[in-house]
Amino acid sequence: MVSRMFRIETEVDKERSQLMRSRLREANTSASPVLRSLRGTPGERQVPLHVWALDGSGTLAGGLVGHTWATWLHVAYLWVDERCRGGGLGSRLLSEAERTATADRGCLNSRLETWDFQAPGFYRKQGYEVVCVIPDYPPGITEYTLTKRLG
After folding, report:
1. Up-side HSE of residue 139: CA atoms within 13 Å toward CB?
2. d(Cα 37, Cα 33) in Å, to the nearest integer?
3. What's the predicted TM-score (pTM) here?
4. CA distance 76 to 78
5. In Å, how far are 24, 106, 116 from 71, measured between CA atoms?
6. What contacts 92, CB < 8 A, 6 or more positions away?
7. Residue 101 is inside which H or E element, if any?
8. Residue 130 · residue 120 · CB < 8 Å
9. Does position 1 have pLDDT exceeding 70, yes or no?
10. How would you classify residue 136: left for phi > 0, otherwise alpha for psi between -120 and 50, otherwise beta?
11. β-strands 72-80, 109-115: how paired?
12. pLDDT, tens digit, for every residue of 6-61?
């Protein structure tokens, strides 16, 4: 018989977090033939993908940080220094990440999140489509999730 008495705790615990993540991964793999088929393949692991733009003096002018996983590119951050904006550098960074993801890693799709005051229009111009809108995340800001079919 399972006890209905539990002690609930709220502290951050890295060890428990890793254990829970491992158990969730096992449960997901068991429940999903798609995730099960990824086991032991290169597509199973998230692989970092970074693209940097440096000016003539080696100073960071812009960059993209993301990763690839299971034929997807996930763009976590794309930033261009204010003095370099408007000249196509953001498009070049994104294009290079997409090229690397498709040519070197076999990615078929890309996804990212952005806020309403950041760059949803920029990403639409790059061929991304809005698939999710979350108003007031955080309060007063709208978050967008966009995707793009690559190649």
Report:
1. 0
2. 6
3. 0.87
4. 7
5. 21, 6, 27
6. 53
7. helix 89-103
8. yes
9. no
10. left
11. parallel
12. 888 999 999 999 999 999 989 999 999 998 888 887 778 899 999 999 999 999 99
